[in-house]
Design brief:
Blueprint: E1 3-7, H1 11-23, E2 27-31, H2 34-44, E3 48-52, H3 60-70, E4 76-79, H4 85-93, E5 98-100, H5 106-118, E6 126-127, E7 130-131, E8 142-146, H6 150-162, E9 166-170, H7 173-182, E10 187-191, H8 199-208, E11 214-219, H9 224-231, E12 237-240, H10 245-260
Parallel strand pairs: 1-2, 1-3, 3-4, 4-5, 8-9, 8-10, 10-11, 11-12
Antiparallel strand pairs: 6-7
C-alpha cells in the first residue's frame, strides 16, 4: 500500500485528509508538527508528503529543507493558504512537487497525489542516513560548512554526510579559522553574510595563510560590491540561496576533481 504523510498543525485537517486519502486506498500517517513529521518521514519514507506551509515553531519551508537533506527527490505537495509570492518562490527553489492553495476542492489534492504516485520513483529514498540500496561510500574528503544559520548549517552537514563526505559545521569566522588551522578541510562552504567577521574577511585570512583547499561561497545577498570583493579573492565558485542541493553537490564534486587535477 502506498504511504502518504500529512504534516499540518491543524488536527482536524490531518484527520480530514487521512479519511479522504484512505478512501482512495492510501496508507496515511499524520503529524501535527514539523519535528514529528520529520521523524515519521525518516521512519516510513512516504511516497508523497503533504505539507502545510504555515505552522508554528517549524514552518513548512523549514520542514521542506530538512526533507531535501534526507531525500533530494522526495515528492512534496505544499498546502499554501495565505502564502506570499516570496514563500512560493522559495518553495519552488526547493523543488516542491506541487503547490496547492487551501480552500480548493479536495479532489484537486487527490488528483495531485494520484499524478505523483503514477510517476516512476526517481531515486531510492534515504532513511536514517542509509540509502535503501546500502550505505554510501566514504569519499575520504572533508567539507567544512561555515554558516551562522543553524538550520542551513545542519541541513548541509547532514546532506553531505549522507553522500559520503566528512562534513563539519561551524557558526562563525573565528571558529572556522581555528578549525582550519588545526585540520585543514578539502573544501570550505563559506556563507558571505556572517556576523562580526563576514565571509570576505574569512576568505582574505585564508588567502593570507595560503590555504590550499577549495572554497565555495554561499550567499543570499545581492550586494554587488561585496560579491565583487569575494570574487577578487578567487573562490572556486559562488552559489546563491536558497540552495539547490543537487546543483551544490555537482559543484562540489567538480571542484574537488579539478583540484586533484
Amino acid at each position: 500500500m502506498v504511504k502518504i504523510l500529512v504534516i499540518d498543525d491543524d488536527r482536524m485537517n490531518c484527520d480530514l485528509l487521512k479519511a479522504v486519502l484512505a478512501r482512495h486506498g492510501y496508507d496515511v500517517r499524520t503529524a501535527t508538527g514539523g519535528l514529528e513529521g520529520l521523524n515519521l518521514f525518516r521512519q516510513h519514507a512516504p511516497r508523497v508528503t503533504i505539507l502545510d506551509l504555515r505552522m508554528p515553531e517549524m514552518d513548512g519551508l523549514t520542514v521542506l529543507k530538512e526533507i531535501r537533506a534526507i531525500d533530494p527527490h522526495a515528492p512534496v505537495i505544499i498546502l499554501g493558504g495565505g502564502a506570499t509570492e516570496v514563500q512560493e518562490d522559495q518553495a519552488r527553489g526547493l523543488r516542491v512537487t506541487d503547490f496547492i492553495r487551501k480552500g480548493l476542492s479536495l479532489d484537486v489534492l487527490v488528483e495531485g497525489v494520484n499524478r505523483v504516485v503514477q510517476q516512476p520513483v526517481r531515486k531510492q529514498a534515504v532513511t536514517g542516513g542509509i540509502a535503501a540500496n546500502g550505505p554510501v561510500a566514504d569519499t575520504g574528503e572533508t567539507v567544512l560548512v561555515v554558516d551562522d544559520e543553524q538550520l542551513v548549517r545542519d541541513l548541509l552537514v547532514q546532506f553531505l554526510s549522507l553522500r559520503g563526505y566528512r562534513a563539519l559545521g561551524v557558526k562563525d569566522g573565528p571558529e572556522a579559522l581555528s578549525m582550519i588551522e588545526q585540520a585543514p578541510p578539502d573544501l570550505v562552504l563559506l556563507d558571505l553574510m556572517l556576523p562580526g567577521m563576514n565571509g570576505v574577511d574569512v576568505l582574505r585570512r585564508l588567502r593570507d595563510r595560503h590555504f590550499t583547499g577549495a572554497v565555495i561561497v554561499i550567499t543570499g545577498s545581492y550586494d554587488e560590491e561585496l560579491l565583487q570583493e569575494a570574487w577578487s579573492l578567487s573562490p572556486q565558485e559562488v552559489i546563491g540561496k536558497p540552495i539547490d542541493l543537487e546543483k551544490l553537490l555537482a559543484m562540489i564534486q567538480l571542484v574537488l576533481v579539478c583540484r586533484e587535477c
